From TrEMBL, chain A:
Topology term for the membrane: Multi-pass membrane protein
One annotated GO molecular function: transmembrane transporter activity
The protein's name in its UniProt record: Simple sugar transport system permease protein
The entry's keywords: Cell membrane, Membrane, Sugar transport, Transmembrane, Transmembrane helix, Transport
Spans through the membrane: 12-36, 56-77, 84-104, 110-130, 142-164, 194-212, 242-262, 282-302, 322-344
Compartments in which it is found: Cell membrane
PANTHER family: ABC TRANSPORTER, PERMEASE PROTEIN, GUANOSINE ABC TRANSPORTER PERMEASE PROTEIN NUPP
InterPro entries assigned to the protein according to its UniProt record, in alphabetical order: ABC_transp_permease
GO cellular component terms, A-Z: plasma membrane
From TrEMBL, chain B:
A GO term, aspect molecular function: transmembrane transporter activity
Lineage: Bacteria, Bacillati, Bacillota, Bacilli, Bacillales
Membrane-crossing segments per the record: 6-27, 39-60, 66-89, 101-120, 156-173, 203-222, 280-301
Record keywords: Cell membrane, Membrane, Sugar transport, Transmembrane, Transmembrane helix, Transport
A GO-annotated cellular component: plasma membrane
Pfam families on file: BPD_transp_2 (PF02653)
Membrane topology, record value: Multi-pass membrane protein
Protein name, per record: Simple sugar transport system permease protein
Biological source species: Priestia aryabhattai
Transmembrane helix as UniProt keyword: yes
InterPro entries hit by this protein: ABC_transp_permease (IPR001851)
Automatic annotation (TrEMBL), chain D:
Record's subcellular location: Cell membrane
Descriptive protein name: Simple sugar transport system ATP-binding protein
A single cellular component GO annotation: plasma membrane
Statement: the UniProt record of this protein carries the keyword Transport: yes
Molecular-function annotations in GO: ATP binding; ATP hydrolysis activity
Membrane topology of this protein: Peripheral membrane protein
Protein species of origin: Priestia aryabhattai (Bacillus aryabhattai)
Family that this chain belongs to: Belongs to the ABC transporter superfamily.
Keyword set, alphabetical order: ATP-binding, Cell membrane, Membrane, Nucleotide-binding, Repeat, Sugar transport, Translocase, Transport
Pfam families: ABC_tran
Amino acid sequence: MNKLVKNERVMMILIPVVSAILGLIAGAVIMLLGGYDPMLGYQSLFDGMFGTPKAIGETIRAMTPLALAGIAVAFAYKTGLFNIGVEGQLLVGWLASVWVGYAFDLPAVIHIPLAVLAAAAAGAVWAFIPGFLKAKFHVHEVIVSIMMNYIALYTTSSLIRTYLYAGNEKSYDIKESASLASSFLAQLTDNSRLHYGILITIAAAIVMWFILNKTAKGFELRAVGFNQHASQYAGMNVGRNIVLSMAISGAFAGLAGAMEGLGTFQYMGTFTAFTGTGFDGIAVALLGANSAIGILLASFFFGGLQTAAPQMNFMTGVPSELIQIVIALIIFFVASSYLIRWVLGRAGKGGAK
Amino acid sequence: MNFLEVLAIIIPAALYSAAPLIFTALGGIFSERSGVVNIGLEGLMMFGAFTGIVSTLLLQDSLGAWAPWVAIVIAAVVCAVFSLIHAVASITLKADQTVSGVALNFLAAGLSIFLIKKIFGKGQTDFIQFRIDKVSIPGLSDIPVIGKILFSNVPITSYIAIALAFAVWYIIYKTPFGLRLRSVGEHPMAADTMGIKVVRMRYVGVMISGMLAGIGGAVYATSIATNFAAGTIAGQGFLAIAAMIFGKWHPIGALGAAMFFGLAQSLSITGAQIPVIQDIPSVLLTIAPYVLTILALTGFVGRAEAPKALGVPYEKGRR
Amino acid sequence: ACGSDDAGKSGGDKKAADFKVGMVTDTGGVDDKSFNQSAWEGLTKFGKDNGLDEGTGYKYLQSTKASEYESNLSKFAESGYNLTYGIGFLLKEDIKKAAKQYPDANFALVDDTLKSENLDNVASILFKEEQGSFLVGVVAAKQTKTNKIGFIGGVESPLIKKFENGFKAGVKSVNPDAEVISQYAESFNSPEKGSAIASTIYSKGADIIYQAAGGTGNGVFTEAKNRSKGGKDKKVWVIGVDRDQHEEGMPENVTLTSMVKRVDLAVEDVAKKAMDDKFPGGKEVVFGLKEDGVGIAPSQDNVSKDALKAVDEYKQKILDGDITVPQTDKEFKEFEKTLKK
Amino acid sequence: MEYVIEMLDIRKEFPGIVANDNITLQVKKGEIHALLGENGAGKSTLMNVLFGLYQPEKGQIRVNGQEVKITDPNVANDLGIGMVHQHFMLVQNFTVTENIILGNEPTRTGKINIKKAAQDIQELSNQYGLSVDPYAKIQDISVGMQQRVEILKTLYRGADILIFDEPTAALTPQEITELIQIMKKLIQEGKSIILITHKLKEIMSVCDRCTIIRKGVGVGTVNVQETNPDELAALMVGREVHFKTEKKTATPKEAVLTIKELVVEDSRGVEAVSSLDLSVRAGEIVGIAGVDGNGQTELIEAITGLRKIKSGSITLKNQELSTLSTRKITESGIGHIPQDRHKHGLVLDYTIGENIGLQTYYQKPMSKSGILNYKEMYKKAKELIAEYDVRTPSEYTQARSLSGGNQQKAIIAREVDRSPELLIAAQPTRGLDVGAIEFIHKKLIEERDKGRAVLLVSLELDEVINLSDRIAVIYEGKIVDIVDPKETNEQELGLLMAGGTREKAGGTA
Ligand SMILES: Nc1ncnc2c1ncn2[C@@H]1O[C@H](COP(=O)(O)OP(=O)(O)OP(=O)(O)O)[C@@H](O)[C@H]1O
Ligand SMILES: Nc1ncnc2c1ncn2[C@@H]1O[C@H](COP(=O)(O)OP(=O)(O)OP(=O)(O)O)[C@@H](O)[C@H]1O
Ligand SMILES: [Mg+2]
Ligand SMILES: [Mg+2]
């Protein structure tokens, strides 16, 4: 039995790693077919990810919202819910952080936490709605979340245009006192936009792990996710747990918005299309096997790929879309872990004999 | 503007924008009725739009006005094949179906633009010369009142979509194929014991969904967008999924839901030109379709019953 | 633009050898059939004229996300590019940051100004879109048969307002009775919205629509083509924007004319200046009718003689300063009042 | 000797388990052949091999003397083999007709000819006395009718050899009687039957021969006439089994549960429990006897707070329960062994340890100020696994992978260990083998002897009569009579359960 558990642990690490390698190999094949030099392509890609202190800083910066979106997806997933509404929750979180960051004059020690909390609260409220409707009226959370995404998209941009408009399709900048930007981190990484949000991200990952695995509430949330009837039988309030789970997930998504609003951009645009980060979160959660550490690693990887894609394009002319293809293939490989298990299993057997 | 004039604007507009949603939602029904979640409809639509435009561009010199129609057929075939990726992953390899669908979306988005850049050397295509045009149906469009509302200024594809919804209803509820498809989505083990090939049925379901989503995307591209770029399909596939769920996985329900979306959308656009509604802040009109959907689901449509085995990979002998 | 021809030639060959110029597009990409494309055409021309190689001498980077703007700008600066363009006001903040971070590199911002920041390595390129829009407004007013004219904007913003107000001013100057129906799509990238809005406006009786809506405008063309197929009496027109959009209207030939905004000229011009050490750092470079930076497109087959004559008259009045074309809603109201007198 | 079915030396392995190890089963034409074995012995597996759902690693199958390869259920159908599965294979939202014709649909110009199909089914059901409504949806019909649909499915395909896998586990006594009649009728019509059941009485009453398997190995085949239940049980378990659990006379004390004038509605809003009165005293087992669907489920749900009551009162030691939440009710001293262990009793994806903690995870010592102490949880689980003989690789094993009997033991361990004032046991032994049943019965009596009140709800009259100190008969949502198990028998109870009355007035509530 011990061996089996151990094996399962090994698999949990092995599958994403093997998938990532397979995805990159497939990417190389596509580059070859497209008439590009894969060696050169990947070299510039890895340069763009880790080549310079600045590249590393940018990779980490790009990973923060991805990781939080991934945490949001994973948290809901672990409690039996599919939060496809991370995108919308991120947008309202972003707006809330920018509004608090712009509208108040406070010392940084208060201003930053307040803006961050506002983002979390906004995301939580946004996710509360599908959660509540599911709990109360048994409405499918997926469809409500999809609708809430659109509502968020149009509402945030309209609110900015009405109350926070600085022209040029963006809001006013936040005040210095609410900014997560850090000259220290920037200097460290040769003027990248790396900001303190990474600390919030790591804290969020720990919080997710702690809630789910260490608290009685987490035990309850997961139980409700697995079997509502049994949870009700055991005296748990199923509806309240569903709502809570969505709200917590939404809070993480809102934080992802704060990373953009208080960190990378310091303002919010009047978007007319989705940022895509919410959907990327699904990929991140999956590659990270819905575990806290896994998500951090996966988001680092995806964040790096995404920031480095223009670099690859710049140096070798390979269209940046290649990266999207590679990411898609990696997701397929992870999701089809059955195949990898089977192959690894055979290889293992062969080796043993 | 009087009321009839308003109707004569919004109904054709609704029919126009609903057609791609109807095709795609009907496709979704085939997949999900067989028990396979298909979040990948968005990507399939995108690939359909891509194929539709590229084919039209390549064919229009030789085929002229027939080019977009042939392109739609090509898109149907290509997307049926493209959907095999989802089928293999989620049926044979027992991947999480939602995740596999999401991956398909990423793949379609990346691959289509990658190929466009490879083929045309730029990030978006030219406009097609021949489109699926809006027409007024001879005879019918001359009927007083309803002729202008229902039979003028609408592409033929919209009527095909509506007819198809009824055809799909017949197939799903009246034919052996439909019964088997539904049984596989409700209780695959029971179907298996009755000698029905569960895996094969699910492949067929997913491939039909690919085909129809491909048609949906191609119809969108050849009648509405008329070229292909990264943002051409931006959320229509998700709306189609919503229409399918809203319509309770029923072809006529999905048709109604898609028309509802079309209507709400066209109202939100036309509203700016209609007295009274004009005074409502435009953002409220823009979000109205989505809010109304939520209210409808919550209020009078009630709980939607998904196929019971939806999302569960079938393993022989598992209980 | 050609004032320093000599200087350009004499020092040119030596300098051109190591002069490098780049541009960062917004998410539209260099073939957006709009200003990114225009800018790239200008840059390409500049590169070819000066014997630069694409990819090493002149080059563009397309951004796929807003967060890439800054890193793309810095890539050029780090790689020793002498001048980097940021195409579109969306890149304003990013150029500001990059310019501060790389004081030795020059940047140019298209469609907005950073003058007030006092950065002497940033040039701001602006256009008087209202002036060009005014002229196509004159055409529309002259050629409408229904006395109803439409305007479709991408996103309601100060920039697009310049198009709208200039256009309306042009219409009203010629034909005060003509009604202009305006609507914004709130998106530069929804052809389906474009066509739906166009459908509404045409259904309300308009026979000409001026679109300043980027990709959304494609839907306007689709709708116009659809209607024009219905027969002669149903013929409707579109006025294109940014580039000569005659092609977009074919084969049904629905493009009446286009309001061109010569981003290409501006880009070429500023690049030349930079190469000649006359980079207008810290300044605004404004391109209006006078500079041939905006105007009416060369494809004018669909425009009546009468209208062309009126266009010339009004152009002269604007150049002479007799007419100041309004940019904002407020200015337009003032302008309308002067007409009534 | 003429055999219709011969399965010779069949071996079937699952990863890590040999489910069938060289088993031989020979069925004569026209007989009812019983297949007997403990939970997990490999009976269903063997039958699934015969039906073509699984492929054996080794062995030979002959049908009517011909060697055959049954590669999938279609082949089995063609060979005239039909199977009624342990867990019904019915599509809930299809009609009876649709379920029966699935895969074999009569059509006219591409369209399913439902009318003809329904007619055929009606005829078939008349022929075998299997009354069903062809147009009813499965989700709306009783378990008994569902079973008849399953049988019709096989007959519709022209099956001559029918496999029944535990057909009686979920049936009421009446339905069981009917089923036995049907089986006899089928034999008369020339069919052969393989019957899997844990109920030795049934084997004794209808079967001709019986093949016994133990832990995947064939033990042998016996003629039913030449054996008795004790011998069968011993063969199956490998030791002697006591059917009638020994118990002392009860010494009931004060009333623990008192129900007065209780009215409860079911999910459709129909009154399922109507002005019901009942009391259960400390130190006694009160059994509720009744035909399924007479309000038992709603009664239990009302007591445990899973269903709102309409009116009346439920008190536990003078505390009113009907206004409390499920959690508060549980805390005030109720243990509940639910009738559907997969739906309510367990979170199948949780480990056994976590399931042991399902009712107490939030209390000390498993939790302190909201922080869970898994060490305590698993420590407790380990103790209980040992005490209740739950057969599991470890406390970290997923509940899903345990057999039904062991899952049930885990639930009982969890509920009993909390020392509740009142223990509600609903169908505690459904589908379990005799060994497991014996254990559970012993546990219930032990609890009674410790002075707890036990409310037993069971469709097995044997069980009710054996265990109860008093039997309350429920009919149409009311307790119609209370009888002393020592003075009654199955016939009398059956009569009462059907709404009849007793001649002689006895037992007080
Ligand atoms: N699908 C499966 N995968 C793996 N192992 C299985 C599977 N089905 C059955 N088994 C194994 O085969 C053995 C026999 O199981 P089977 O279901 O045949 O028992 P059974 O005799 O029918 O029990 P019961 O009386 O509880 O129905 C089990 O112990 C189990 O380990
Ligand atoms: N799919 C499966 N994979 C692995 N083992 C299985 C599987 N299904 C059943 N088993 C094993 O089969 C054995 C018996 O299971 P089975 O479900 O037949 O028990 P049961 O008492 O009949 O339960 P139930 O009351 O649910 O019918 C158990 O030991 C279990 O571990
Ligand atoms: Mg069993
Ligand atoms: Mg069994």
